[in-house]
Amino acid sequence: QVQLVESGGGLVQAGGSLRLSCTASERTFSSYNVGWFRQVSGKERKFLASIIWSVNSTYYADSMRDRFTISRDNAKNTVYLQMNSLKPDDTAAYYCAARRNPGGGSIHYTDRDAYNYWGQGTQVTVSS
After folding, report:
1. Hey, which of 3, 54, 55, 92 has its CA 20 to 30 A from 103?
2. pLDDT band at 30; cut points 50, 70, 90
3. Backbone angles phi, psi at 31, to 5 degrees
């Protein structure tokens, strides 16, 4: 069982920035796709961005591409989500997720059901 832990959430004013981190109990993310999702209470959990670790390939939801950046740190075995120009509508619980990808396939997945493991989430609140 892979355990994921998110960190970096908090309270920030509109226009500010946060960087979220995702770490795993696995020694390395090298055989996984890692994605970021967010969920507002009463709403569907929605895809934000993903990375295929083995080839450092990234993919973004169209609405996130201009403000959010997903990246990795091999030495720290960590995936980040850099969020800039935050808006009150960005207020949500943010989750990282991992999908097994032992063959190094190049397909990105946006459906939450495609991911095998989930963290507990970290809350981001953006004030106006």
Report:
1. 3
2. confident
3. -105, 25
Question: Is the sign of the CA dihedral 95, 114, 69, 57 positive or negative?
Answer: positive
Q: pLDDT tens-digit profile of 41-66?
A: 999 999 999 999 989 999 999 999 99
Contacts of 127 (CB under 8 A, 6+ apart): 11, 12, 13, 14, 88
Measured over the CA atoms of residue 27, residue 18, residue 38 and residue 124, the dihedral's sign is: positive
8 Å CB contact between 49 and 66? no
pLDDT of residue 107: 94
Evaluate whether 116 touches 69 at the Cβ level (below 8 Å). no
